[in-house]
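Weekly puzzle thread! Below is a chain. First person to post its structure in token form gets bragging rights.
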Amino acid sequence: MSDDERAEPKTGWIKFGATTVIAVGALITGFLQFGTTSSFSVRQPFLNMQSELCRSAAESVARLASTLDPVTWKKSREEFWMLYWGPLAIVEDVEAKTHDVEAAMVHFGTELTKTDPTSPTLPISSLEQPALRVSHACRDLLSSKWNVGILGWFRQ
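Winning reply:
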């Protein structure tokens, strides 16, 4: 048997092995991506609700800090407390190890109670930084949801 005849089976096995490893790797990657994508699509309604409620909270606190109209301020105050005691509590930071949205809303609520609701001096500049804190906490919560799937592993 010549050297060429002995080298040919080795080359065939190397090609087969390399092809098999690549195929198995692609299959595993596909299953992982499918799992994370399907997990995300199942959670999509919850994430949409979370986004909408965070946006509502951010708008409400911004109006409370910046409006000059007493009617708008009163309506925004009612909206803030409604979000605080109800819908936002359902969706805030359910998967996070920190509770930034909750803490920001609590801090804003504490600052808001220091203001006389019957005759506030508008705009209320003491609410500006707490309002920004709520908005930034919501931004961080929502942007954390984009680190999903295989690409999320590389962003961290």
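Puzzle host: Confirmed. Bonus trivia for everyone else. The chain has one domain: 3-146.
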